[in-house]
Amino acid sequence: MPIKVPDLLPAKSKLQDENIFVMDESRAFSQDIRPLKILILNLMPLKQQTETHLLRLLGNSPLQIEIGLLHTNTHTSKNTSPEHLKQFYKSIDDVKANKYDGLIITGAPIENLAYEDVNYWEELTQIMEWSKKNVTSTLHICWGAMAGLYYHFGVDKYMMDKKLSGIYTHTLNDPREKLLSGFDEEYLAPHSRHADIRREDIESVPELKILSESDEAGVYLVASKDGKQIFITGHPEYDSYTLKKEYDRDEAAGLNPMLPINYFPNDDPTQQPRLRWRTHSNILISNWLNYYVYQETPYQL
Q1: Taking the model in full, what pTM does it have?
Q2: For the residues of 20-65, what is the DSSP string, one character each?
Q3: Which CATH architecture does the domain made up of 3-160+194-239+276-294 adopt?
Q4: Which residues have C-beta within 8 Å of that of residue 200, sequence separation ≥ 6?
Q5: Does 61 show up as a binding residue in the annotation?
Q6: Which of 90, 112, 139, 160 is the most buried (most CB within 10 A)?
Q7: Are 111 and 143 contacting, i.e. CB atoms less than 8 angstroms apart?
Q8: Under the phi-then-psi rule, with left for phi > 0, alpha for psi from -120 to 50, and beta for the rest, what region is 44?
Q9: Would you say 181 is a known binding-site residue?
Q10: Residue 192, annotated as binding a ligand
C-alpha cells in the first residue's frame, strides 16, 4: 500500500523516482480505507532531507499511511524556508485536539546542550506529555531518543570524548521480540552523535528493556514494556550519502573530523559509500508500524 503525502511536498517526486509507492491527497480521498495517521516531529536542521529519509522508510510498509509534519514554535529554523514550513508543517497547538496512531520524534544536532538549555525544551516536553494520551506508539530517533529517555524515565546522556560516526555491527538481545522479527542475528546500522546513554542506567528502570546493542556503538534499541515508547540511538533513516555529507561539511569547516567507521570503501573518502543497512531499516520501521501501531491502535481514533 502507498504512503499518503501532501500533493506538493518536494519529497514526493524524489520517492517516486526511487519507485516508492506514493499516493497524493487527491487520489487517497477516493479510497474507502482508514490509513494510519503518523505524525513526524522534525527537529533536524535540513528538514526536507529528513522528510525524504523518513518517508522512504514509511512508504515501504504494506499499510496505507497518512503523514502529518510537526515543528516547534519556539525555535526558528535557519535551514528550511518559512514558505516550506508554512505550507507543510503544523504546530502542537494545531494538532493537540487530534489522535494519532504513531509519532516519530527525530534527532537534532544539539547533544552538547543540557536538555533544559534547548530553547524548545519546554515545548518538546509538552508534546511528549501530550503523546501519552493521544498517540498509540512513539518512535524516538538519536537525540530524540535521548530526550525521550530523559523526560519519560530520567535516563540521562553523557558526552563522549569523540564523535561516534559510522556503520556498526549490532546483535539481538532477544530475537523473540516483535520489533526484531525478521532481523539477522547480526546487522548494520548508522550512528552519528556526540553523546551516549549507559546500559546500567537503562537496566535500572523496570519499565524499559534493551532489545539490541553494539560492542562498539553501545545500546541501540530500547523499548518500554508496554510498547508505547521505542528508542533508537542511531539513524536507520540515513541514506548512503548522509554521513559523507556530514564529513564533508565538517572537513570544509576546518574541524578535522575523523573518518566515519566502516563507511567509505578502503577508508577512502573519495570513494562512494555503499548502502548496506537498508534491509534492517525497512524491517525495523515495518515492525514498528505493524506490531506497535497497527495491531494496537483502535479503528476509530
Answers
A1: 0.90
A2: --EEEHHHHTTS----EEEEEE--SSSHHHHHHHHHHHHTTSSS-E
A3: 3-Layer(aba) Sandwich (3.40)
A4: none
A5: no
A6: 139
A7: yes
A8: beta
A9: no
A10: yes
